[in-house]
Amino acid sequence: MSRGENIKKIDDYRFEIPLSYQSEAMKRLDLRMNVPGLIYADEAMMESIVKDNSLDQVANVATLPGIVRYSFAMPDIHQGYGFAIGGVAAFDEKEGIISPGGVGYDINCGVRLLRSDLTFDDIKPHIEKLVNTMFNNIPSGVGSEGRVRLSKEEIDQVLASGARWAVENGYGWPEDLDFIEENGCIEGADPSFVSNTAKKRGAPQLGTLGAGNHFLEIQRVEEIYDREAAEAFGITAVDQVTVMIHTGSRGCGHQICTDYLDVMRRANKKYDIPLVDRELSCAPGDSPEGRQYFTAMKCGANFAWANRQMINHWVRDSFATVYKKSPEKLGLRLIYDIAHNMAKLEEHDVDGRKRKLYVHRKGATRAFGPGHPDIPEKYRAVGQPVLIPGDMGTASYLLAGTQRAVEETFGSSCHGAGRRMSRHASIKQNPADKIIAELKHKGIYLQAKSRRVISEEAPQAYKDIDEVVEISHRSGIAKKVARLRPVGVVKG
Amino acid sequence: MKNYEFIDHTADIAVKAYGDTLEEAFAAAAEAMFDIITAGSEIEADKNISFAVESIDLEGLLVNFLSRLIVLHETEYLVLTAFKVTFTGENRLEATASGEKYDEKKHGRGNHVKGVSYHMMDICDGRGIKPGYVQVLFDI
């Protein structure tokens, strides 16, 4: 039986994996789904979704204890490890589990978007200089070291206070903190539960971009779909210039994940949780191991917010250098900063009752709707900004969270477009010179640390971001606000 | 003659590593990982290192072994080769290797390995093309 045959179409953008579905791994262990799966996609996208292991992975997650409502798949769902990427799963605080695999290695990989008073005409003569200045100011790439030297006490402060530490140490503006998810610091982050190894890996990498699909991007607003929301966010006209930053918690987060995957594998045996996939290793949220992972994860998240805050500061510096004007005068204000690899303890309405849930979003973004108290007051009438980074030749998007998302997906939506081509294949098919020329033809200036990363990150290697965003919009879990086109890109 | 080969994977990089023993296969997987990190550059054997790891099972042992190497790479800026692995008990091993400090000019710019995954992992002792065989995926 083909995987697709079991799936039930709910409407044009919702497909259900019924409780009767069993992956091979589930059959071997005689496990059943505790809740159905729900995939946000259209018919065309479903045809490619059934081709990889995503459906099995969505079903496997549904076997975990304490899962509530559905095992979700966002429109950008694709095969991951344990949890699919683009997966959302919420577990009861007392009866459910917490899983590092449901967050990912790059804890709080996320995106930040700045607006400016500049137009494309203003920056056109300066794009190369802006990109080169950012490239020089912000360390990136494999083996790169940060610009700051931190003592052991300081790294603990970074882990405990996140972006707040950064602002207190002169990176950025105090008001930036109002426009970051969790105000740039999740409370209750205890650095004593982070290994020395993770701190040793993290310290020299604070304030660095990383490599792979991380980037800095200067963009121009190409289209505005929702004028009211755009203006509330600070986007007022087509051709307005924005800057996007995409990076995460670097070696610190990676090591926290590695450390706790090991802890969780042992905990799985201890708590007798049947494990359909090693990467789904977990512990009860209410257990010592669960609580320790959660607090360590918060530290990793805070590291990433400090990281993005520092990079934000150097981006502003770069613009100030080129324009010989302060970033304030250039209007380089932060629109928002979101995480797309995270677990949060959130209160949600479940069948008329308020419940606290560990909401895991792996390659998925929080998307709270209008009126939600956790979003900045300035945005409360229109909803939370949702930032969706695209590949370097196509586009990125600014969306807004919706009430429908809050009601259906615990306030979650997509995060970007996944890869559709292996690095190896991309290197063969997309030589660096060809990509540079293609980007140049589109008016995009690129600075990258290596020719290899240009080939690997070629636009052709990625799925269609427009499709992913369109389905999110039409299904109602996020609302299109603006389309942003790259004009200058920095890759590590 | 390399004792490993890369498997095409959409998002990350997977490796098949071989040896006359499972220990040799573990060592070959480590060579493969530094091949990824240095884009296949030559690594000179200047310094020697050694360490021990343990875990709850063989899969965990492989992950912990390779993860320790990532730590050495990122905290002591080492690139390593000439791995020798010895199993010292149930799910325990000792490893030695030689290498040098990472030098951008010498060791190029390969891929950044974030971690070692259990996904697609296969460990065979006594089956397969050669007696020792592991398959492991690296999160890039």
Q: What are the defining features of this structure?
A:
heterodimer; A: 492 residues; alpha+beta; tRNA-splicing ligase RtcB; eight-stranded mixed β-sheet; seven-stranded mixed β-sheet; 16 helices; B: 140 residues; Archease, Possible Chaperone, Chain: A, domain 1; four-stranded antiparallel β-sheet; three-stranded antiparallel β-sheet; 3 helices
Structural account:
The complex is a heterodimer of chains A (492) and B (140). Chain A is of the alpha+beta class and 492 residues long. Chain A has a domain at 110-420 and 462-491: tRNA-splicing ligase RtcB (Alpha-Beta Complex), CATH 3.90.1860. Chain A contains 16 helices and 19 strands. In chain A, the strands form 4 sheets. In chain A, strands 7, 8, 9, 11, 15, 16, 18 and 19 form an 8-stranded mixed sheet that branches. A 7-stranded mixed sheet of chain A has the order 1-2-3-4-5-13-12, with helices on both faces. The radius of gyration of chain A is 21 Å and the shape is globular. Chain B has 140 residues and is of the alpha+beta class. Chain B has one domain (4-139): Archease, Possible Chaperone, Chain: A, domain 1 (3-Layer(bab) Sandwich), CATH 3.55.10. In chain B, strand 4 (78-89) and strand 5 form a beta hairpin. In chain B, helix 1 (22-38) runs parallel beside helix 2 (58-76). The radius of gyration of chain B is 14 Å and the shape is globular. The model of chain B has no long low-confidence stretch (mean pLDDT 92). The chains are: A alpha+beta (492), B alpha+beta (140). The interface between A and B is large, with 45 and 37 residues.
